[in-house]
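ENTRY TYPE: paired fold submission
RECORD: A
CONTENT: sequence, then structure tokens
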Amino acid sequence: MKATTVCGALLVLAMATGCTRDDDAIGPAQKAGKAVDEAGDKVAKGLRAPLEKADEAAQQARERAEDARRHLAERTEAARDKIVDATEEAGRGLEKATGKVGEKVEKVGEKMQEAAR
């Protein structure tokens, strides 16, 4: 019996070493999972380029909007400066005209006084 037991044990060991799992061999569920992962990666890669283009277009639109805002602010400031200058010039012209009218009124008043004497 001992010989049978030893032979049986050796047979079990031989079978056990022959049934070891190969790490490279994958089952059908693993193959399906891998295929799903690869398909997901392919879709992600396909979407990445259009999303990057959309991001780039949005960034360019923001930059153009900022440039337009800056340009408008500069033009508004220039227009404001022109209005201030024109207002100051009009004020100086009004003072000059008021002075001339005052001189003429004074001359007319002097003439009236001379005529009244």
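RECORD: B
CONTENT: sequence, then structure tokens
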Amino acid sequence: MSKKTLAAVALGSLTLLALGGTAIAKGGGHGGPFGGMHRIVEQLDLTPEQQELGMQLKEEAKADHEAQRESRSAAFDTIAAELALEQPDSAALHSLIDVQLASMSVMMHERLDGFLTLHATFSAEQRATLVDEMDQAKARKEQRMEEGGEGGRGQRGGQGGR
């Protein structure tokens, strides 16, 4: 699997895994990268115990997200410094990517384990609702893709259609 494919799979998986954390808390807006999962969770009618577990997972996910952001920022600085050189160190850059992917993999497995802990508390009705809501979300995304490309949300600032 190419690194680009792996990154795409990772991003999609993180969105799903956010269900176990970031999207659990009710209230607030529905925007951002996990807005759709937030709407799905609202349909599950979580018990107070499930909400408490979800809040714990949310806090863990926030901490992971911040650590990943800091790591990506440091990696970007390292890449920029290498690319400023006449002869960038290819091995160092490849190693940096490998470290970033390994870190993401560990985080994703931890988020998955947390989500599976929450999922184990779901009733049969909640699991059925989860699957139904995810199917509907997939259909909406596919519709947006047909209407306008990348998620149907237009193109990113001046980058044109890639």
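NOTES ON RECORD B: The two ends are 21 Å apart (CA to CA). Residues 5-34, 154-162 have pLDDT under 50 and may be disordered.
STATUS: closed
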